[in-house]
Amino acid sequence: FIGDAFTVGAGDETGLGWVGRVVQAEWARNHDVTAYNLGIRADSTRAIRRRWRAECEARLPGGSNGRLVFMFGGNDAKEVVGSGVEVPLEESVDNARAILSEAVAWCPALWISLIPMSETKPYPRLLPGSPEYRFDNRRQAQYTQRYAEVAEELGVPFLDVHTALMQDLDWEQLTQAGDGSNPNAQGYAKLAGFILSWPAWRVWFEAS
């Protein structure tokens, strides 16, 4: 599982995040899953593009029945106050295309969109003196749409949870209950539910 704070499960008071929940659910279905969480808080596609292959190869040696799940983009789309968007849209799309095209040539892969964030609650600063960030869910929707286009171009299954969660009346409350950018445990449980019912995810386990 490769991504940023959402992949890590930041903000989840249980420590499970969505990755822990989907793996837990598959174990309950007698599916022997070994999961490696390669999420890093604040990572953009620039950082993920540099690191993902080496980190995955170290965990998936030759002959492994490996699978890759990507979730990124929230940090690309955020505004760094005083200097603009972290990773401009076209650069983010280029990074995403490079990551996923290499990934699917190596292992089966799935791609999950970024998720909506609170536009009103201040983003938590990881370190003293770190920049102030702002989020705009309309901008995030643009990134999601372009990612979906790249996924279709590459033939990678893509789950657009951003659109679904923007229509969810409870989602804003769940992000507010977390740290503003990352949801709380209930939010991650909701996200895990989308993934567990996704046909592209389920097909990986049909023969298990």
Task: Explain what you see.
It is a single chain. Helices cover 47% and strands 10% of the residues. Helix 2 crosses helix 9, helix 3 runs parallel beside helix 5 and helix 5 runs parallel beside helix 6. Strands 2-1-3-6-8 form a five-stranded parallel sheet. A three-stranded antiparallel sheet has the order 5-4-7, with no helix packed on it. It has one domain: Rossmann fold. The model has no long low-confidence stretch (mean pLDDT 93). The two termini are 20 Å apart. A hairpin with a 3-residue loop joins strand 4 and strand 5. With 208 residues, the protein is α/β, with parallel strands linked by helices.
Low-confidence stretches: none
Please state the CA-atom Rg, rounded to the nearest Å: 16 Å
CATH homologous superfamily - what is it? SGNH hydrolase
Task: Tell me which CATH architecture applies here.
Answer: 3-Layer(aba) Sandwich
What labels would you give this structure?
single chain; 208 residues; alpha/beta; Rossmann fold; five-stranded parallel beta sheet; three-stranded antiparallel beta sheet; 10 helices; 47% helix
